[in-house]
Amino acid sequence: MARMQASNPPDAPAHFARNVLQSAFDFASVGLAVCGRDGRMLFVNRFLCGILGYERAELTAQPWTNYIFIAADDSVPDVIPESRVRVFGPQETHLQGRDGRQIRAHVNMHPVLDALGAIDHLIVTVSRIDSAEECEEIPCRVPRHHDTLTGLPNRFLLEHRLQRILLAAADRAQTVGILSLGLDRFDNVNDSMGRRVGDSVLRYVAKLLKQTVDSCGSVARTGGDQFVVILPGLDAASVAAQASAIDVCLSRSYEIDGHLVRASARIGVAMFPENGDNAGDLLASADAALHDAKARNRHACRFFTMHMKQAALRRVTLEAELRRAIEREEFELHYQPKLCIRTGRLSGAEALIRWRCPSRGLICPADFIPIAEDSGLIVSLGEWVLDEALRQVAQWQREQTLSVAVAVNVSPAQLGLQRPMEWIMAALRRHDLPPEMLEIEMTESAVMQEVDSVVGGLRELARQGVRLAIDDFGTGHSNLSRLGQLPMTSIKIDRSLITSIVTQPKDAAIVRTVIEIAHTLGAQVVAEGVETAQQLAILRMSRCDFLQGYLLCRPLTADSFLTWAKQHSRNDARRILNLGES
Predict the structure, then answer these.
(1) Is position 208 within any domain?
(2) Cβ-count burial 109-129 (b if 16+ within 10 Å, e if not)
(3) Is position 220 within any domain?
(4) Which of 561, 493, 568, 571 shows the shortest CA–CA distance to 526?
């Protein structure tokens, strides 16, 4: 008897009770989860794992609300409700299974109070509704709030969860970090490898983000190639470190469906409560920071500032005005002449868009073209520019006042959204002009980023006789082998190089090298922004073919350009060009 007493420790009843409770918890015929104050599951039983289709380790430390669908006219029970309420439920709701199934269930939430009467934990019970007929109706009645491609929460569910996280953070005086991520050049993946590979990339990125964030946050896909990461309880330094870890993870090359892919991203960061006190404002701040990051080099990560907010407000206002301006036709074209350096003859004109806003006056293209590209308005705006430029050239020809080819700037977005052969050739036919009267200009940086998606359309145009000029050459990072794939007829050296060729011998050497490379590739060279006779002299010695710039004249309205062209004679040209020989 003594031996029996010695073999039983003093806390045997408590130990036995714990075992009984654990067995009852684990083998209960309903799903059970114990959540902490932050809503993350501390313990889950086997039955709940079976309902949702996850292993216990996969559910532990995850927010309970990650697995709840939200109906448009419904609401998910708060993770930790107000302490004055004692019992919640039963409430009928819909859960998210591992395979994307929507599971109809009754959910009860029972708060566990601490010694002061405040809610310390939450016990969640889940009873599945097994009616096959009712379950089949769910997809028709309940809107999806998870992204069907990646399984991540979508923007609606993201905002709902974020608002609750912010309320909890405010109560505890904690900060929350929001990362808005946009993949670099994702459209290239779709265009060159197909949408199936693109979808695989998005799924893989979602997986990488979840692995990188792990238990310190949650991930959502808000559309297209954009994701959002919520990082509760982290300060700015920790959020920056997490953003850096994500950037490193995404920058690694990996193979998908036989293709080697590298999905770098730009990241915009907003912090609660400094950059917004509600979900909508905070996400808008993160998006504004992302927009700023996209305007910079790759792998850029930008924290939100008030300057970004003001810039975002200006963009929104200007975009609305831009839409009205397109409807009201508030735009006009100015023309800048292009002269042959060897003969002094007028060899063409570049059409440059100007926005004459009734309230703001004449607006520079640099202020509204980026907004037009971001908003998709560049397509309709570009169509107007092309049509108006060809209309003007055709009018000059009909009146027998001037015969000059025109160059029009085209965005890669225009070539990507529409078949260039169709709308460009249709415009030429509409104005009864031969293709040789049109030159398409694309900036070096833009065409290099989109070369795989636009080269086919450009080759089609070249076969018809339309010429291609690479604009702003020297400002990007061209791969010469890829540059050689393009059917270019000319290269335009950016004014930033021309400005310094007199004072910087290295820049003059770069210009000479560019001219030699262009000639080797069978392209002619245009120097932009020529303003002085000294610049002209160096360009002539370097065998540059054409020039544009204030040395000739500023961009002119159509009427002023016609007057200038009529007054311009070979002697006038020689007088201007001889300045470089004096």
Answers:
(1) yes
(2) bebeeeeeeebebbebbbbbe
(3) yes
(4) 493
